[in-house]
């Protein structure tokens, strides 16, 4: 569904984007990276806004720099910050943005209900909370039933309940065969939702694989234990090397362990290890 | 169909944000002023009022409209929708042209203008021209202060020659200035006819500039600035 081959883009005469990857139909592909890494610029290339790139960026069988008029009929973008007319109601916003497409639209009331806004469609957006705006913005991207969705921090600013609802909708869209590009700082969401993730730093992909494979290939499970030695001490050792940890052996034999936990590395740990930077 | 929806959307936006209300007040005020003037002053006074306000309002309103659109980030969504830069520009020109035409016609009627068709054509042509200029300025600014700073020298360049032309400095070469052609039409004179091709060249030039600037604005939303 998306093919990026030897894509390069220079900005102010310095290379900024240089990457290869592909996204299959029905896949959720996550872009993870710090601010300024090139995620938005890549999204602008894939949505046809930047055409001065080299190499190939093919979306839905169309080279992005030479797209035809119907290119945007099949692309839905949910920006990180709401892009809505504040003085129009939620329903008026959806109807206006929907009227810009020639495709058959999804039912507005059904979409509002899906994100719990069925009783708020008649309110002005200026009266919405931050979370309500995020949810309305999200369904705005689904309105014209696009084949490809670009979602930028879709759960940002949402309470756990609404975050869960949004993630379920994303999974549901994937099951319908939608291809989803997810840009996020949230490693928990990326681990749960993405079939593949790419770590982007300075316009380059530093690692690309499924979250599970990245975690298993780059890290190993650890155990963390605490004990009293005058004051409370914490130590760690790799799960596969417990027999080599003399202190752990000694504590077990003397029943002095206060607590013991096993833990796998998170995607965040792997990101830090691979890229040398930490996501907020 | 999309263009019609876009124009309808822009008209609704302008209505909801009070543009129609403001212009109703201004129009009533201008009509009242014209009706209180002596008969022999009315035609020129109406021409100046129509030229400097209903016709030129695109210059001021485009700043407000684009700043609203930028602050509410709706341009990001429009940029990745099937809406083309041409449709975006035409929608702005037509939607503001409707308010200009209604307001301009009301003032002209109060002054007993002789050739209403030419007057309204002049108002619409002026509105289109000023909207394009306003759009070119507005897409390159990020605050009202920046807009006002940029708009003042443009106003001087655009408004001074037509007013001089109307009040006697009527050298025909003045009609190379698009504002003079517009005020010539609004005042009901037929001087403009020979200079219409020059006005069209100005219009096409400004349209091209607006198109380049709108495309650049769409590209610069989020990510790096090209």
UniProtKB/TrEMBL annotation, chain A:
Lineage top rank: taxon: Bacteria
Annotated keywords: ATP-binding, Nucleotide-binding, Transport
Xref: InterPro entries: AAA+_ATPase, ABC_transporter-like_ATP-bd, ABC_transporter-like_CS, ABC_transporter_ATP-binding, P-loop_NTPase
Keyword Membrane: no
GO MF annotations in UniProt: ATP binding; ATP hydrolysis activity
Residues in ABC transporter domain copies: 2-227
Listed name of the protein: ABC transporter ATP-binding protein
TrEMBL record, chain B:
Annotated signal peptide: none
Transmembrane segments: 20-39, 45-68, 89-111, 117-140, 147-169, 181-207
A Pfam family assignment: FLQE3_permease
Keyword Plastid: no
Keywords carried by this UniProt record: Membrane, Transmembrane, Transmembrane helix
Protein name stated in the entry: ABC transporter permease
Organism of this sequence: Sedimentibacter hydroxybenzoicus DSM 7310
């Amino acid at each position: 569904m998306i093919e990026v081959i030897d894509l390069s883009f220079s900005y102010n005469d310095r290379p900024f984007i240089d990457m290869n990857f592909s996204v299959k139909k029905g896949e959720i592909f996550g872009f993870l990276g710090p601010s300024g890494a090139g995620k938005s610029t890549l999204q602008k290339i894939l949505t046809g806004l930047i055409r001065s790139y080299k190499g190939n960026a093919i979306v839905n069988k169309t080279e992005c720099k030479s797209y035809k008029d119907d290119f945007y009929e099949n692309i839905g973008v949910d920006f990180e910050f709401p892009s809505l007319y504040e003085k129009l109601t939620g329903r008026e916003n959806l109807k206006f943005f929907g009227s810009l497409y020639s495709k058959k639209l999804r039912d507005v009331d059904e979409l509002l209900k899906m994100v719990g806004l069925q009783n708020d469609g008649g309110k002005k957006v200026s009266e919405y909370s931050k979370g309500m705006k995020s949810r309305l913005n999200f369904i705005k991207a689904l309105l014209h039933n696009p084949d490809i969705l670009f979602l930028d921090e879709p759960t940002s600013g949402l309470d756990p309940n609404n975050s869960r609802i949004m993630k379920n909708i994303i999974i549901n869209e994937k099951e319908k065969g939608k291809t989803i590009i997810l840009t996020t700082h949230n490693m928990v969401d990326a681990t749960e939702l993405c079939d593949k993730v790419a770590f982007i730093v300075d316009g380059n992909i530093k690692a690309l694989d499924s979250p599970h494979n990245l975690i298993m290939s780059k890290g190993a499970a650890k155990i963390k234990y605490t004990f009293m030695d005058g004051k409370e001490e914490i130590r760690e050792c790799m799960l596969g090397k417990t027999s080599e940890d003399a202190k752990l052996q000694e504590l077990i034999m003397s029943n002095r362990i206060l607590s013991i936990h096993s833990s796998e590395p998170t995607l965040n740990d792997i990101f830090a290890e691979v890229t040398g930077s930490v996501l907020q | 169909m999309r263009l019609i929806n876009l124009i309808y959307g822009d008209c609704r936006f302008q209505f909801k944000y009070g543009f129609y209300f403001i212009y109703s007040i201004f129009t009533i005020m201008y009509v009242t002023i014209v009706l209180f003037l002596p008969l022999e002053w009315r035609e020129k006074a109406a021409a100046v009022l129509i030229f400097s306000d209903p016709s030129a309002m695109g210059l001021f309103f485009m700043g407000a409209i684009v700043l609203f659109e930028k602050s509410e980030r709706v341009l990001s969504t429009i940029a990745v929708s099937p809406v083309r830069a041409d449709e975006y520009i035409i929608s702005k020109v037509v939607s503001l042209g409707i308010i200009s035409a209604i307001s301009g016609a009301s003032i002209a009627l109060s002054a007993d203008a002789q050739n209403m068709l030419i007057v309204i054509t002049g108002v619409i042509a002026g509105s289109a021209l000023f909207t394009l200029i306003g759009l070119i300025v507005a897409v390159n600014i990020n605050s009202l202060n920046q807009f006002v700073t940029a708009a003042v020298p443009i106003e001087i360049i655009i408004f001074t020659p037509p007013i001089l032309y109307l009040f006697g400095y009527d050298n025909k070469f003045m009609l190379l200035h698009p504002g003079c052609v517009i005020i010539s039409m609004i005042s009901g004179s037929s001087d403009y006819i020979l200079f219409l091709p020059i006005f069209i060249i100005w219009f096409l030039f400004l349209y091209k500039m607006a198109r380049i600037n709108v495309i650049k604005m769409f590209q610069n939303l989020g990510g790096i600035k090209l």
